[in-house]
């Protein structure tokens, strides 16, 4: 099943090139996760006043009822904000999935010695 990426913008024009860049960048960063749905919000906080105000916010809905990961990054350049948010989302999803696996693994390791003692 393909990953669904919903992109919304506020205060800036969402061009076809920008839309394609966001999809390509997120497929590269998060395509391994089996995530079915991503929501991306792109915004220009200060409008024409300028400054470090281009925001990219990414919401990753993890499969099987796991937590939702929400990442936000603000930079002067929108493409830099997208890149950085995608990298951070990749790391956050990896951590979230590792915690889940780690918790299960710890339970199995803890339970195994008890069974050996009973024999």
Order of helices and strands: EHEEEH
Kindly report the spatial arrangement of strands forming the biggest sheet. Answer: 1-2-3-4
Q: Kindly, what is the distance between the CA atoms of the first and last residues, rounded to a whole number of angstroms?
A: 47 Å
Quote the average pLDDT: 81
Overall geometric form: elongated
Percent strand: 25-35%
Kindly name the structural category: alpha+beta
Radius of gyration: 19 Å
Number of strands: 4
What is the tally of helical segments? 2
For the sheet with most strands, the description reads: 4 strands, mixed
InterPro entries: RHF-like, RHF/RaiA
Protein name: HPF/RaiA family ribosome-associated protein
Organism: Pseudoduganella plicata
Question: Would you write up a description of this structure?
Answer:
By secondary structure, the protein is α+β, with helices and mostly antiparallel strands. It contains two helices and four strands, in the order E-H-E-E-E-H. It has a four-stranded mixed sheet with strand order 1-2-3-4, covered by helices on one side. A hairpin with a 6-residue loop joins strand 3 (54-61) and strand 4. The longest helix has 41 residues, at 78-118. The relative contact order is 0.15. Residues 104-113 have low confidence and may be disordered.
């Amino acid at each position: 099943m393909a990953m669904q990426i919903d992109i919304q913008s506020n205060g800036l024009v969402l061009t076809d090139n920008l839309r394609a860049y966001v999809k390509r960048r997120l497929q590269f960063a998060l395509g391994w996760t089996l995530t079915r749905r991503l929501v991306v919000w792109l915004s220009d906080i200060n409008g024409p006043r300028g400054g470090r105000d281009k925001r990219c916010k990414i919401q990753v809905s993890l499969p099987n009822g796991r937590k939702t990961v929400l990442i936000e990054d603000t930079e002067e350049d929108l493409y830099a904000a997208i890149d950085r948010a995608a990298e951070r989302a990749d790391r956050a999803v990896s951590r979230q999935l590792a915690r889940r696996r780690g918790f299960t693994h710890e339970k199995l390791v803890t339970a195994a010695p008890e069974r050996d003692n009973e024999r």
